[in-house]
Amino acid sequence: MNNQLDAAERRELPDSLYGLPERREYPMPDAAHVRAAESYFRYCPDTLKPKLANAILRFARLYGVDIHSPVILSYAE
User: Fold this and answer.
1) What is the number of structural domains in the chain?
2) In a designed cystine with 21, which of 5, 9, 15, 47 is the match (CB 3.0 to 4.6 A)?
3) Per the domain annotation, does 48 fall within a domain?
4) Could you list the pLDDT tens digit for every one of the 77 residues in the chain?
């Protein structure tokens, strides 16, 4: 199974499924994409990291993903 979203699938996702909806970046429609957002967190602009960290934790709870990254947890405080 392919966990990547193609361009058409990304366009169909509602803004509410993105970690940064205003930029439509970091889509998180499932657990695999939450883990991907966690791994790509370091590439997020510093000013947006708190918002993305909180979104990752919110989606992680929704999909039952454990987030242990101290960096993400510190930005979410």
Assistant:
1) 1
2) 15
3) yes
4) 457 899 999 999 999 999 999 999 999 999 999 999 999 999 999 999 999 999 999 999 999 999 999 999 999 99
